[in-house]
Amino acid sequence: MLDAAVRTFGRRGYQAASMDEIAELAGVSKPLVYLYLNSKEELFTACIRREAAALVAAVRAGAEEGDPALPADRRLWAGLTAFFRHTAGNPDGWSVLHRQARTHGEPFAAQVKALREEIVAFVTTLIGAAAREAHRAPELADRDVAGLAQALVGAAESLAGWANETPGVTAKEAAATLMNFAWAGLGNLMDGRGWSENR
Fold first, then answer.
1. 145 near 131, Cβ under 8 Å?
2. In degrees rounded to 5, what are phi and psi of residue 144?
3. Please, what is the Cα angle at 107 between 103 and 108, to 5 degrees?
4. pLDDT, greater one: 158 or 130
5. pLDDT digits over 44-92, tens only?
6. Whole domain around residue 154: which residue ranges?
7. Within a domain: residue 185?
8. What's the number of domains the chain is made of?
9. Of 42, 92, 116, 178, which sits most exposed with the smallest number of CB within 10 A?
10. Which CATH number is 82's domain given?
């Protein structure tokens, strides 16, 4: 039922999707849909929660896969690649999270905000670890790390939309684009060579 709902919401949008259409696609009766979830709003919320959990699990599994002694930049690369692989492989789920949920009111937007905060916290940890690995006692402030994580996650969200709509863009290509954009800048900041308007 949730598969059918994600597909319908992702392709038609929250407003245009009907419970009749979802029930038909799921191969169940409309009363059965209402038996499990009392309203269209509850069904959409369940879809958001499921897709958010799947995305977070994919990113964490990618970043934590293999040798735990891998440098933080390699774990970030693996997490980004997993993110882009997941969003490309689940375009309807990504549409539900990135387009539909953000534009249809507070109950849905709050769910996506919680997802984003969880991913930002995870990326913040990876960037902080990278700073510690690259510079035994880095001077990079917690605020700078948090800001970089916010920027990186925002860029990843935007890039996923572009990659999904651009034929032939692979998950690794999208991840490499973001790493090339962000990692050099992070390295400069950690080395004390961050951009300044006074230069």
1. yes
2. -65, -45
3. 45
4. 158
5. 999 999 999 999 999 999 988 766 677 777 888 899 999 999 999 999 9
6. 50-190
7. yes
8. 1
9. 42
10. 1.10.357.10
Residue matched to tokens 């002694």: 69
Percentage of residues in the chain having pLDDT higher than 70: 85
CA distances from 90 to 47, 49, 145 (A): 13, 14, 30
Q: Quick check: 185 and 193 in contact, CB under 8 A? A: no
* Tens digits of residue pLDDT in 26-40: 898 888 888 888 888
Report how far residue 173's alpha carbon sits from residue 12's, in angstroms, rounded to the nearest whole number: 29
For 47, residues 6+ apart whose C-beta sits below 8 A from its C-beta are 2, 5, 6, 9, 93, 96
Q: Is residue 157 part of a domain?
A: yes
DSSP 96: I
pLDDT band of residue 192 (cuts 50, 70, 90) is low
Asked if the structure places residue 82 within a domain, the reply is yes
Output the pTM of the full model.
0.84
The answer to the question of residue 137 being in a domain is: yes
